[in-house]
Amino acid sequence: MAPYRVPPVADGVPEGLIASSRGRYAPAHLGELGTLLPPELIDAVLEEHGGRHSRLRDLPSRCGVYFVLAMCLFPEVGYSLVWRKLTAALGSLSMVDPTAKALRDLRRRIGIAPMRALYETVAGPLAQPSTPGVRHGRYRTVSFDGCSAIRLPDSGANRAAFGRHGGWPMLRLMTLVETGTRALIGSCFGPPSEGEAAYARRLLHLLTPDMLVLWDKGFDGNDFLAETCATGAKVLGRLKSNRITPVLARLDDDSYLSRLGTVAVRVIEARITVTCADKTTFTGSYRLITTLTDPRRHPARTLVSLYHERWEHESAYYALRHTLMDSRVLRSKDPAGVEQEVWATLTLYQLLRTAMVDAVETRPDIDPDRAGFTVALQAARDQLILAAPATGGLGRATEIGRRVLDSLLPARRPRVSTRKVKSTTVRYAERLNDGRPDRSTPITRLTTEVLPPPERSEYPETTTDERTLPRASPQRRSEKIIAFLHSEPDRTWSAKEFSRLLGDITVQSIYRQLSRLADRGLIIKVGPAAYALPTTLTAAEIP
Question: pTM score > 0.90 for this model?
Fold first, then answer.
């Protein structure tokens, strides 16, 4: 099929408006962000993936793609209001005023494949070799992490596809992020019932030998480590507490060589002491593994400090989930719509990061993490309403870049606070007292002490994923919960009571465990966070 030719715009178009199309095509824009996603690319993707219209309609498919992206840029308003924002500055250029149903039908006609292809086109690392804060030596630092706090409408189709967690259908998003710029290199998502490592395996093909992958202890596994190393990428990750690692050779910086499954690694055990401005102190411990085995090139203390870059991934999720999505439930009430909406949101997030990095890289020695995501988002929203194109200058998105540079955040200030769960689906967001202050507090001193290898009489020749340390208690938590219920079988028990009695688990964790026990039929939920025994059941009968 021959490509459609956009008719020229008549004279008299107000200065500053996007003047590349008129009539039915006039709403096919994204303001300044459209310079990063031109109409030619949209048409090519639609042509390749079958989302293009077979006849010229009042709502062409190209307009539909931009509408879906705009819909994610304004999550707080309905379809009709999103369309009005797209056409607010177009005046007589726009000849269509569709109903909400027509816009829903337009979404269905476009489908999933074009939106996914657009995301895969724009996804990828953004930093140049000279960009500050994105490399460790010759390696680009990237990280794996998952987010399972994205809520979906509570429809039957969504419940069947994604299940219910915390009262809502939820999906698990897994991303590979360039930590320095917080750009998305790759993403996948699906039901939370599938583990993080399983989703991360789908993104391993995106790793390259010039990458250093950071991950937390949720990804600690021999098979996953071996598969990651097979890509040629290097690894710096955290170990689970149940690992017993063999000491094969002690190194000069008190780290030591070991082996996890078939992979030779270096283990760094460190104690970090933090002194806050209010004179309080607390300590934390890390046990890291890395495939960077040369202590002279990669000193242990340097790698411990570098591991903190993994928290850039948490900042990326905060920008995506809370700033861009405004912590809202997605619109789509069916799995196909959910998938289309998520790909569009990820595409939009990447476009904003691209505009931010383009702007920051016009000034040398500025770390990309000083660019404000909220500033870029609000500028993009304003420029969409104005239908304003970029006219050259700072990067490819002029006004967005100018606002970002005018509102650079201060250099990162060392500070600390208790980590809190921000998802509103979590019923209890308090954590156990770990010594960290409840509110963000400046750090006046931070010391890192690399600990020597532990002295043990015997070491295994290798370490497996099995829980090789003895349990802290002869009873599992599930057995203890059943025992508590049997101690007073005629009353109901709350999650807060179980957390207080067990003493070693947060309220939100015990709430999740109680939900799993209820799903297995071992207990029943009789009210909000209230549980009881369904029948007479002994601890020995727990499967």
Answer: no
